[in-house]
Specification:
mainly beta, 11 strands, 154 residues, single chain
């Protein structure tokens, strides 16, 4: 799993803050939905995974808007953009565990690569009480399409 951060006036500060956030999470951070297997990704460079389905996530104060409404099991890149005026992050939590971006300052964007399994996932901002203020949604992931079946059945 990898994460790429782009934009913002102080991307270097965001990266440093993300490293600090990662250390704090490793020391027992909480968040929406409780503990569990938290996997905080680290920044990386590159053009992204060409085999993953892209999902744009617009994070504003205090809403999340996903560009995709239906999901099947597979690889996804959630492109989280902080369009708000407060710091935000993106977390995806469900059957495969939980993964999240570092905290993004206004204007920053991060790619979060996840493999979604069949089941129900929470997608939310784990910063402060942002999820309780409306920065949350739920997605249901169906079984992967069987490309060997006639007509590409399910």
């Amino acid at each position: 799993m990898a994460m790429t951060v782009r934009g913002g006036k102080s991307a270097a500060l965001g990266v440093a803050g993300g490293v600090l956030a990662g250390v704090l999470v490793a020391c027992g951070g909480g968040g929406y939905g409780g503990g569990g297997n938290t996997d905080t990704t680290s920044p990386s460079s590159g053009n992204g995974d060409k085999t993953a389905t892209r999902v744009n996530v617009d994070m504003k104060d205090f809403t999340l808007a996903l560009s995709k409404k239906t999901f099947t099991a597979g690889n996804y890149t959630f492109v989280a953009k902080n369009s708000g005026t407060h710091d935000h992050a993106l977390e995806v939590e469900g059957p495969g565990g939980e993964q999240k971006t570092m905290t993004l300052m206004p204007g920053q964007t991060a790619d979060l690569k996840v493999t979604l399994e069949k089941g129900t996932y929470k997608v939310f901002c784990p910063v402060d009480s942002h999820a309780d203020l409306g920065m949350r949604t739920q997605i249901t992931v169906g079984a992967a399409k069987d490309s060997s079946s006639p007509g590409g059945g399910y």
